[in-house]
Amino acid sequence: MNINSDNYYGDNRISTALLLAAGTGSRLFPLTKSSPKCLTLVNEKSILERLINNLKKQGFKRLVIVTGYKNECIMDVLGSNSEDLSIEYIHSPLYRTTNNIYSLWMARNIINEPFVLFESDLVLNTSLLDDMVFPDKIAVAKMQPWLDGATVSLNKKNQVTKFHKGTTDTYTDVRYKTVNIYSFSLSSWRAIVKKLNQYISAGIVNCYYETVFAEMVADKSLSFESVSFDHKPWYEIDTINDLAEAEKLFPAKLKTQVKIEKTYV
């Protein structure tokens, strides 16, 4: 078999996505005053609409969304399906006092298959998901001064060896920013759920799910192979400044067409 062929992964291709969209998006206020972060417009097209288009182009069939803040807005926009993509919702009533570890835990009973995990503040080109639709992957980009948040170290096989908390301290090794897209095999997901149950039972509901992943990678009960997003168009939108930068990367097609027309007039 040609391992470079599109069919090499066979039936391992993932067709289920989980989107965590429960947060209030406070750092994007006032844009999030009356709607959740994922409905923020990036050059006239919302973050959510862009993700839906990405998923459909990649052949996803099922999307599960964990909602919280202004959940009715998301449901009104999407309904129960978008063409061949079915859409299901889980509402987290504790969204103001919990973090994404709790949102991920909320999906433990509704998802029983391999899936790709997304955060609701990412915009990216569909092609970046080409290698993320197979199990046990993590999207990363080499750490840059303008990035912040959790990072990972990789070995020569591009496997994650350690998670690091976001820090401004200097370090000598090469670190990679997590892009907050992960894919899981069913066995990995079941192991994660067991660990999540332990955290939630202990009342640890207001931390990031990377805390769980870090512990599991350290004890070798979870492994990820990295997928590089370096030098490719993606952006994580947390603030108004982030939104401005994202709009530079993802210009409106209509504006581009107008410029072309003016060139030839």
Please provide a written account of the structure.
The protein is an alpha/beta fold. The chain is built from seven helices and 14 strands. The chain has a single domain (14-133, 178-216, 233-263), classed as Spore Coat Polysaccharide Biosynthesis Protein SpsA, Chain A (Alpha-Beta Complex), CATH 3.90.550. A hairpin with a 5-residue loop joins strand 10 (151-154) and strand 11 (160-164). The protein is globular and about 40 Å long. Helix 3 crosses helix 4 (186-201).
Q: Which features characterize this protein?
A:
single chain; 14 strands; disordered C terminus; alpha/beta; 265 residues; disordered N terminus; 10-stranded mixed beta sheet; Spore Coat Polysaccharide Biosynthesis Protein SpsA, Chain A; globular; two-stranded antiparallel ribbon
Strand content: 15-25%
So what's the oligomer here?
A: single chain
Overall average pLDDT: 88
Please give the alpha-carbon distance between the first and last residues. 53 Å
Main beta-sheet annotation: 10 strands, mixed
Q: Outline the low-pLDDT stretches.
A: 1-9, 254-265
* CATH architectural category: Alpha-Beta Complex
Shape: globular
The amount of helix comes to: 25-40%
Q: What is the count of distinct domains? A: 1
Name of the CATH first level: Alpha Beta
- Find the CATH superfamily: Spore Coat Polysaccharide Biosynthesis Protein SpsA, Chain A
Number of helices: 7
Following the backbone from N to C, one meets helices and strands in this order, namely EEEHEHEEHEEEEEEHHEEHH
In the CATH hierarchy, the third-tier topology is known as Spore Coat Polysaccharide Biosynthesis Protein SpsA, Chain A
Rg for CA atoms: 19 Å
Instruction: Count the beta strands.
Output: 14
